[in-house]
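Researcher: Structure for this, please.
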Amino acid sequence: MAFRSLNRTFAGMKQVVYAFDFDGTLTRSDTFVAFIRFVHGRWRTMWGFALFAPMLMLMKLRLYPNWKAKQRVFAWFFRGMELSRFDGYCRDFAVMKARLLRPKMVALLEQALADGARVIVVSASIENWVRPFFARYGDRVMVSCTRIDVREGVVTGKFLTKNCYGREKVKRIERAFPHRNTYHLVAFGDSAGDDAMLAYADEGYKGRKSAAHFSKSEHRCMENREQDVKDGNRKKAFIGEALRFAVVGVAATLIQVGIYNLLVGRMNYALSNTVAYAVSFLFNYVASTRFTFKVRSTARRGAGFAFSHVVNYLLQTVLLAFFIHLGMNERLAQLPMFAVCVPVNFLLVRFFMKK
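Model: Predicted structure, token format:
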């Protein structure tokens, strides 16, 4: 394979160093959400992310710092937990979720070790749960990830180091292997957060099929360019859909708010919201298919759209009652309700319209 011939080529000349991203590269999916769900269960995880949906939407649109959003979510779930308990969850997670690792990428990592190369895993995930995945390799695999702050044996919810993302990954590699001209760096990643590391490497491989790309390195540049174009088109499409959704959402919201305010003095606030929501729903579906996502209206999409709005309606009703219970005015209570429900609704509707 290519990595064997590569090591033979540089044997006696330069040390070979392999740098691996963790989430999505060595693993099949992101472990941040998976770990939270492992510890707190499905429903508490869904509720927590629903509360942070507006902030996460801003993060996706690059209007809110990635590290700050991640730290706030982490703090909500783990602040105040004893470190010993947290580390126990981390060890159990690595054992019970070992299937998250990609066999081909693990085989590549192990072959690199067998060939005498140095290996480092650099990830934005929390080091406490990444490190146990590689415990069997001892100090042969270095792990450099985001580290958390602990005071008197209790997790504070803050990060002790910078989020290991983007340029920070390059700094971690430089710290572990400071003399850059003495080694040949091969790096593997799968997202924009790995681009700086891949550009810094002598050989950078990006994508879910990194192992295959590595064994066919002559096609790497073309494949990476094509992947970058696809990623760029996806981002543009997502932003366009989000903006169109916002326009339709504002119109539908104005319809709902107008009808709600006309009825709320004449009937119960929950019934007023139900009638207003029904009218807004009909407008929203037509506009979503023809304008927002530009798809043909089908029974399946209609059912998915309806399901999304049933979830949204229930969430609205619960939050509206919650904010009114806190003492807010019946009309003003809609403002924080929409702040949570609109981003959640966009993600649900987009899923059913596009899949």
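Researcher: Any notable elements?
Model: Strands lie at 15-20, 118-126, 141-146, 148-151, 154-159, 183-189, 203-206. The longest helix spans residues 220-263.
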